[in-house]
Write a structure and sequence with these properties.
Blueprint: E1 4-9, H1 16-29, E2 34-38, H2 44-54, E3 58-59, E4 62-63, H3 66-90, E5 94-98, H4 101-110, H5 115-121, E6 130-135, H6 138-145, H7 154-174, E7 178-182, H8 187-203
Parallel strand pairs: 1-5, 1-6, 2-5, 6-7
Antiparallel strand pairs: 3-4
Helix pairs in contact: 1-8, 2-3, 4-7
Bound molecules: thymidine-5'-diphosphate (TYD).
C-alpha cells in the first residue's frame, strides 16, 4: 500500500483540526494506517515556536523579526519532515497534517516577506499529494474565533486574516495540489466533500 501525504490548510477558525481528525478516522475505518500530525509540531521545538507566535513573538521584551519567525517555522518543519513524516510515508501510512509548508507561504507572506524567499528556505520540504484548503469568508472565521482572542489584538487580526485568506487563494492558483473546499457548510457536509475529493484525487475511486 502506498503512503499518501494529505495536508489541511486554512485561516484560523476554518475547521482544519476537526476535519483532519474526521478524515483520519475515515481512513482508519477503511483499514488504512494513519499518522495524524500538525505544525507547529508537538515537539519541544514546536512548543517553543507556538509560544513565541501566540505570545506575539517576544524575546527579551522585543519582537523577533518576521524573518527569524519564518526560519523557526522552517526549522520545526525540517525536523518534522525528516523524523516523522517521511518515515511514516515509507511505511506506507497515510499522513494527515494540520498545517504545513503552505501555512508558512500564506502567513509569512502576509507578514510582508518575499514569497520566493519563503519558497527557497522551505525547499527541503516535499510537496503534499493533496492539500485541502478550507476556505471561509473572514466574517465567519471571526465569529468562530472571537472567543479565542483578546480585544486589543482583534483589529490587527482581522487585517492579517484577510491577507492570509487572499494569499491562500493565490497559492491555490500556483500549486496544483491545493484544492479549495467551502468551509461554510456544517461539519458533516464538509467532511463528505473532503472524502469525495480524497477518493477522486488519490484513491482513484
Ligand atoms: P495553529 O496550529 O493554528 O494554532 P492553535 O492550534 O494553537 O490554534 O497555529 C498557530 C499559528 O501559527 C497560526 O496562527 C498560524 C501560524 N503559522 C504560521 O504563521 N506559519 C507556519 O508555518 C505555521 C505552521 C503556522
Amino acid at each position: 500500500m502506498k503512503g499518501y501525504f494529505i495536508v489541511f490548510e486554512g485561516i484560523d477558525g476554518s475547521g482544519k483540526t476537526t476535519q483532519a481528525k474526521l478524515l483520519a478516522k475515515w481512513f482508519r475505518d477503511n483499514g488504512y494506517e494513519v499518522l495524524l500530525t500538525k505544525e507547529p509540531t508537538d515537539t519541544e521545538f514546536g512548543k517553543l515556536i507556538r509560544k513565541l507566535v501566540l505570545e506575539g513573538s517576544i524575546i527579551d521584551g522585543s519582537r523577533i523579526s518576521y524573518e527569524a519567525e519564518a526560519l523557526l517555522f522552517a526549522a520545526d518543519r525540517a525536523e518534522h519532515v525528516k523524523k516523522i513524516i517521511l518515515p511514516a510515508l515509507r511505511e506506507g501510512k497515510i499522513v494527515i497534517c494540520d498545517r504545513y509548508l503552505y501555512s508558512s507561504l500564506a502567513y509569512q507572506w502576509a507578514r510582508g516577506l518575499d514569497l520566493e524567499w519563503l519558497i527557497k528556505v522551505n525547499s527541503f520540504a516535499p510537496r503534499a499529494d493533496l492539500v485541502i484548503l478550507l476556505d471561509l469568508p473572514i466574517t465567519k472565521s471571526l465569529e468562530r474565533i472571537r472567543g479565542r482572542v483578546i480585544k486589543t489584538e482583534f483589529d490587527k487580526l482581522v487585517e492579517l486574516q484577510r491577507k492570509v485568506r487572499e494569499n491562500y487563494l493565490k497559492l491555490a492558483e500556483m500549486f496544483p495540489e491545493i484544492r479549495v473546499v467551502d468551509a461554510m457548510a456544517n461539519i458533516e457536509d464538509v467532511h463528505n466533500n473532503v472524502v469525495t475529493l480524497v477518493k477522486h484525487e488519490l484513491l482513484g475511486l
